[in-house]
């Protein structure tokens, strides 16, 4: 069961990276461990036969977005989180308990109900291997999903303009 | 390939870690990172379901989530830089007034 072993290795990498994001005091290390977690996720996408998503995850998420975070962390030169007394002392304990509650609820949902009740789609793994995952995804993207695709372009444009307007230095 | 439950439980773990990080951490940038973590937990569930149901819709939704995450990161980080300029700090506990 090489596939199973690979899954557990990648899942371990992803979870370890995510725990490090939450636990490490220095934001720089948090960003870098999130990159590690994203690389693990990209491997998981590959194991799910989603090659295009895996590549985009590495190039766009781990490459572009995380580097943006890294630039900002270095720009404003953050050190360790200071050990000031918390304004709400039970914050950490309460947060962890809430998290465990959410996790227990989600897992209970997944193990109690039948998961795959929907109708099967048009793209089983054999067909994807035949036409190519990227080609199939691209075709669906510019036919069935063309309107959300265009809206995505408008959203990114507005995002860029907004970021420039917000972060520009005002000269008076 | 591992069964669907394992992928879903992993995605629940990622989402939960994101929630805990948002509640527990006080640095605005780390809070943003934890939001990205939650988005990725949702993405993994989308791709896993899409793959097990022989459909591409899950992967397409992941693209849109990634685009929203990119726009959100750009705007959010610009806001963090602004807050830092005004307050010399990115601690969310320091940003407790609507006016500067």
UniProtKB/TrEMBL annotation, chain B:
This is NADH-quinone oxidoreductase subunit K. It is an enzyme of class 7 (translocase). It is found in: Cell membrane; Membrane. It catalyses: a quinone + NADH + 5 H(+)(in) = a quinol + NAD(+) + 4 H(+)(out). It comes from Tectimicrobiota bacterium. Its main location: membrane. NDH-1 shuttles electrons from NADH, via FMN and iron-sulfur (Fe-S) centers, to quinones in the respiratory chain. The immediate electron acceptor for the enzyme in this species is believed to be ubiquinone. Couples the redox reaction to proton translocation (for every two electrons transferred, four hydrogen ions are translocated across the cytoplasmic membrane), and thus conserves the redox energy in a proton gradient. GO terms for biological process: ATP synthesis coupled electron transport. Keywords: Cell membrane, Membrane, NAD, Oxidoreductase, Quinone, Translocase, Transmembrane, Transmembrane helix, Transport, Ubiquinone. The chain crosses the membrane at residues 6-24, 29-49, 61-84. GO terms for molecular function: NADH dehydrogenase (quinone) (non-electrogenic) activity; quinone binding. NDH-1 is composed of 14 different subunits. Subunits NuoA, H, J, K, L, M, N constitute the membrane sector of the complex.
């Amino acid at each position: 069961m090489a596939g199973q072993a690979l899954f557990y290795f990648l899942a371990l990498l992803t979870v370890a990276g995510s725990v490090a994001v939450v636990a490490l005091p220095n934001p720089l290390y948090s960003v870098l461990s999130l990159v590690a977690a994203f690389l693990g996720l990209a491997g998981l996408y590959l194991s799910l036969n989603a090659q295009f998503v895996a590549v985009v995850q590495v190039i766009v998420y781990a490459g572009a977005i995380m580097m943006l975070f890294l630039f900002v962390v270095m720009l404003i030169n953050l050190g360790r989180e200071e050990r000031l007394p918390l304004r709400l002392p039970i914050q950490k304990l309460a947060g962890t308990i809430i998290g465990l509650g959410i996790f227990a609820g989600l897992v209970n949902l997944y193990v109690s109900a039948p998961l795959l009740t929907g109708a099967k789609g048009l793209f089983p793994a054999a067909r994807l291997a035949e036409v190519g995952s990227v080609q199939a995804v691209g075709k669906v993207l510019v036919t069935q999903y063309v309107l959300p695709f265009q809206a995505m372009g408008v959203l990114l444009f507005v995002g860029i303009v907004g970021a420039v307007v917000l972060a520009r230095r005002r000269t008076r | 390939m591992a069964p669907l439950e394992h992928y879903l439980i992993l995605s629940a773990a990622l989402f939960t870690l994101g929630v805990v990080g948002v509640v527990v951490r006080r640095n605005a940038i780390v809070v943003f990172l934890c939001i990205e973590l939650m988005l990725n937990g949702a993405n993994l569930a989308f791709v896993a379901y899409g793959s097990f149901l022989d459909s591409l819709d899950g992967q397409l939704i992941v693209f849109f989530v990634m685009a929203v995450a990119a726009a959100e990161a750009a705007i959010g980080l610009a806001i963090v830089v602004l807050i830092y300029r005004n307050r010399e700090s990115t601690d969310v506990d320091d940003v407790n007034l609507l006016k500067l």
